[in-house]
Amino acid sequence: MMYIPGQMQVTLVSCYGQKTQPMIDLIRFCQNELSKGLLAAFRPYELEQVHATLVGLEGYRQQDKIINRNFLERRHEKREMNLAAAIAFLQSDSLPSMTIRIGGYNSEVDYGFISQGQHPYLRSFSVHGEIAVAMGWPVAGNTVLDRLRRHFNTMNIWHKRHDTDVDVDNDFYFVLGCIDRRFVTDEQVNAVEGNLRQMLAATESMRFEIDRSSLSIVGYLDKQLPLATSCAFPVDGLEIDVALLREFYPEEL
């Protein structure tokens, strides 16, 4: 764990560090399939490093204020984040829990929702540039995750996929590792992508409970959140020092 004042960014994540055995099994299964298909071109994340981002808390210090980066970059507005309110909400009884379903999405079935304009079968596993991403959603089309992200918008913590008032991001996504595209063809990547989608669709759906006990606020130097250069504060059962958290942020450029 590393703490470097004035040089780190901050994010709210789930499943960072310790994980349940079913989640461990799922991550290892996907990483093994990626390694089989892409060999050394695939670099898996460490098991503890794999996480699901709920909402980014990135920002910049401007005198005594912490300016939200997404508001500045995506909405072109300087808004001071209410970090104290965010932490109080995370540690209150108002924080919703959710059941996330991963896998078991058949391409021929209408599940009553789409993800970024695509069927959940296609989104259950995908490669975006150099990262391999697995994904799930709250059960039964429940939009609790999107509503949670929208609640943070009210604290001037803008979710990056909410470019308009009608945008929906109900995706529970986690990066499994990185792909060095110099050493693998597009055809190989596409084949592995298709195989993993089929394998996840053919499995019985897995369900994971996400609540306060699975959440952490993480200060990081590297957005991949390697443990060696990140500093994690579990949300459950600990009083998080807002003043200390504010010291993580760099000065505005």
Contiguous uncertain segments of 5+ residues: none
Q: What spatial form do the alpha-carbon principal axes imply?
A: globular
CATH C-level label? Alpha Beta
What is the helix tally? 7
**Number of domain modules:** 1
The assigned structural class equals alpha+beta
* Percent helix range: 25-40%
What is the name of the CATH topology? Cyclic Phosphodiesterase, Chain: A
Number of E-type strands: 12
The mean pLDDT is 94
User: Strand content of the residues, in percent?
Assistant: 15-25%
CATH arch. level architecture: Alpha-Beta Complex
One letter per element, helices H and strands E, the order comes to EHEEEEHHEHEEHEHEEEH
Q: Report the biggest beta sheet as strand number plus sense, adding barrel if it closes.
A: 6 strands, antiparallel
- What name goes with the CATH superfamily? Cyclic phosphodiesterase
Distance between the termini: 26 Å
Radius of gyration: 18 Å
